[in-house]
């Protein structure tokens, strides 16, 4: 397993107690980056247990120097784009310095712990923000199972598009409406076709979630110059959870040149970016292609990507409904899937994306597409969980769903795990459906 | 005709002589905004004849005050987003002040002309830049003729998608690869299917241009709050030409969820933004719908939009080839079309775009889609001009095209015209095809 360094040492523990509890999402081996605000201002930080190491405060206290200090200064504007642009070396230097400051048996513990109140902010007192300016957002379609099921629902003779096994299919998404976990999801108004064939504009029925993982681009490339697959991993800064909310009613009617208003009303992401480096202990070989599938073309083939293009990440979706909450019942786990259910690696997605010379910029977001697997439990959206409505999902004694209803809340979670490594988490991506505006209110200028 | 003000006065002339020549693109009635650079730095300006009024210099010289000064200060960072965000009143105040300063019979002429060397920069000494940061780029498909022809080439029984007359169809485009006129267009590498059915990666054949007009968003809207059609015009800052370069070979193979790498290698725009205000004298009723077509739904219907949702803009595409240039021959006009060939107005496009609550931001770009008309001369891409390759386009005594070849150059031009008004131009959108990188060069990390 390549790229392991002292920050991955499973024996290392933090002097922040909450980072050491069993199944902590943010142990000292994780150290994901994010942006948070409090009453004072917005700034970059790193999660440790249930606290946030405040990069501005660490700089101000003189606890960072050299490349680690340069890395922290690069995000002094309250977003991570500058750090992303510097390339993997600087984020790595900063994580190494933080690991030294936060480890329970480190030479710098005493000095850091003495300033604890100054350099650590409890998550409970912080509001997470988008971690960076997202210039472009692209979303892929890389689960064969998701794609085949949807092809079958549409009654296609060949449910898989011809290009599916030759290239990772993708489309451009809307960057402006990406919001951080916790932002309410207002049911969109939209134009759709009723069951009786009439077209109307109103609150969109058939709202769905889609469970995805997304990569943030680190270093970019110059327009016209592709990124070889062998270099792709160095262009990925890290990963977050993505809920690609979809109004299927709008999508089915509008879609000629891909998804547009059926998705652009909001996309939710988890606030912490788990770095490419933190995931090094969890790399797996790229998912095996089924026997008989064509080999990828040479520019989508690389020995390193084949050996460790996969990542051992389990992902879940949880649903809470108003009735369940009223009855004091917790959320229902409705999806358990794994990143290895994808047909293409993130390296292949990124290399394909830049293969025509398209320039990727630091902070660009690249979604995996819905991570559905072959198993029924691994269906990662309600459309699949209900076989396109044929088998409603039981969510309570007398309650079923074929789509999300107002008040429903979806929480996505993920965890990287591997024997011999300390498991790390992604935090959560949460969103609750709010009722739509009335058409009358939408028509009044503001 | 609404919204006319003194800046539209056809009797007004500039003391900059080049603004008064017949058919000048930038007479004093136009005053489009752009961003330019010289050896010193990058800054915002306004075109007048073949000169650029330097907004920083005008501010520094004390020639602007009040709302006009506030408008100029809003783009002191060398991009127009701040001015766009202020809403139409401020750009209008700045145009009014500039018109007063530049008019040949104005009270402020003497003071301004005395500082001519300081406040005017010859276009020949400036390099135009992108006018603003483009957060999101959306492209529409609003020409019925373009859509029907492409449907027929594909052999579709019903060449028009069912939703075409119910909503303006659109997709998200790539913002990072938008470049200003004059930027070379490198033929992309890409994956495509050969005539013999084999899939390969190499220099993409079947390169095409697409002639479009595009609107820049001015004031944005809050996520979740649609923009009523009656307010849409106030959210449009102005317009430019757009060449939506397309690698049809890539597009035909990859396209499942809309265009992706077939277009994201570059999109070219003209550098000057002709304002919504400057186009007020050229408004027309929205194009009439053919008899029997359904009326738009109420949220896409507005009396003001119906009365003046159209604009009298003629557009052209010109092709120059290496052989023509070697023979000393000028470019060939291959397309003559008109904005009224669109089925939907820009107001409808913008209102539809925000109808699900999607937030538009100042500087977002909204393309019209290829502006093809019913006439053969009004076919606005080579695919249509050649009936999808069946009738090659004659470009010289012995030379034909079914797609663009290396060295070919496309120039788009447009002009607003109306009896009683001084015609205004859009400048040009120019791009020349350069040979592709070799696959070997693309595979080397840089």
UniProtKB/TrEMBL annotation, chains A, B:
Q: Which cofactor does it need?
A: Ca(2+); Mg(2+)
Active site (UniProt): 146
Q: Which UniProt keywords apply?
A: Calcium, Hydrolase, Magnesium, Metal-binding, Phenylalanine catabolism, Tyrosine catabolism
Q: Which Gene3D superfamilies match?
A: Fumarylacetoacetase, N-terminal domain (2.30.30.230), Fumarylacetoacetase-like, C-terminal domain (3.90.850.10)
**Binding residues for Mg(2+):** 244, 263, 267
Q: Tell me the route in metabolism or biology where this protein functions.
A: Amino-acid degradation; L-phenylalanine degradation; acetoacetate and fumarate from L-phenylalanine: step 6/6
Domain named Fumarylacetoacetase N-terminal: residues: 29-131
Protein name (Swiss-Prot/TrEMBL): fumarylacetoacetase
Query: Where substrate is bound, by residue?
Result: 251, 370
Recorded GO molecular functions are: fumarylacetoacetase activity; metal ion binding
What is the protein's species of origin? Massilia cellulosiltytica
- Mention any Pfam family matching this sequence: FAA_hydrolase_N
Binding residues for Ca(2+), per the UniProt record?
Answer: 139, 210, 212, 244
Q: Where is the Fumarylacetoacetase-like C-terminal domain?
A: 157-433
A Gene Ontology biological process term: L-phenylalanine catabolic process
* EC numbers: 3.7.1.2
């Amino acid at each position: 397993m390549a790229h392991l360094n002292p920050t991955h040492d499973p024996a290392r523990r933090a002097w922040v107690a909450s980072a050491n509890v069993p199944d902590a999402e943010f142990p000292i081996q994780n150290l994901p980056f994010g942006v948070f605000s409090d009453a004072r201002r917005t700034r970059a930080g790193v999660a440790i247990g249930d606290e946030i190491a405040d990069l501005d405060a660490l700089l101000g206290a003189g606890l960072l120097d050299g490349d680690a200090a340069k890395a922290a200064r690069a995000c002094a504007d309250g977003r991570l784009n500058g750090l992303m642009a510097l390339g993997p070396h600087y984020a790595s230097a900063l994580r190494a310095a933080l690991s030294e400051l936060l480890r329970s048996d480190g030479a710098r513990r005493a000095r850091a712990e003495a300033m604890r109140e100054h350099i650590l902010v409890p998550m409970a007192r912080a509001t997470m923000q988008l971690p960076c300016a997202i210039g472009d957002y692209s979303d892929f379609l890389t689960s064969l199972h998701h794609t085949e099921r949807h092809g079958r629902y549409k009654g296609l003779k060949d449910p898989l598009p011809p290009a599916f096994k030759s290239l990772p299919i993708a489309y451009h998404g809307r960057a402006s409406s990406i919001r951080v976990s916790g932002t309410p999801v207002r049911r969109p108004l939209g134009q759709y076709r009723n069951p009786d064939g009439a077209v109307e504009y109103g609150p969109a029925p058939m709202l769905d979630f889609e469970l995805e993982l997304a990569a943030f681009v680190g270093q970019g490339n110059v327009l016209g110059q592709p990124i070889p697959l062998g270099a792709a991993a160095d262009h990925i800064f890290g990963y977050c959870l993505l809920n690609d909310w979809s109004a299927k009613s709008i999508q089915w009617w509008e879609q000629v040149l891909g998804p547009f208003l059926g998705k652009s009303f909001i996309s939710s992401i988890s606030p912490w970016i788990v770095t490419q480096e933190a995931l090094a202990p969890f790399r797996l070989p790229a998912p095996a292609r089924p026997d008989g599938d064509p080999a990828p073309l040479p520019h989508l083939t690389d020995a390193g990507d084949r050996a460790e293009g996969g990542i051992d990440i389990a992902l879940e979706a949880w649903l809470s409904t108003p009735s369940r909450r009223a009855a004091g019942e917790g959320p229902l786990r409705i999806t358990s899937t794994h990143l290895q259910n994808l047909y293409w690696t993130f390296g292949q997605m990124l290399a394909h994306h830049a293969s025509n010379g398209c320039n990727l910029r630091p902070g660009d977001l690249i979604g995996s597409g819905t991570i559905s697997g072959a198993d029924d439990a691994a269906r990662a959206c309600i459309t699949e969980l209900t076989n396109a409505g044929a088998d409603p999902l039981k969510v309570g004694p007398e309650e079923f769903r074929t789509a999300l209803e107002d008040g429903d809340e979806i929480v996505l979670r993920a965890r990287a795990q591997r024997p011999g490594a300390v498991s790390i988490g992604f935090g959560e991506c949460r969103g609750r459906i709010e009722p739509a505006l009335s058409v009358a209110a939408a028509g009044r200028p503001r």
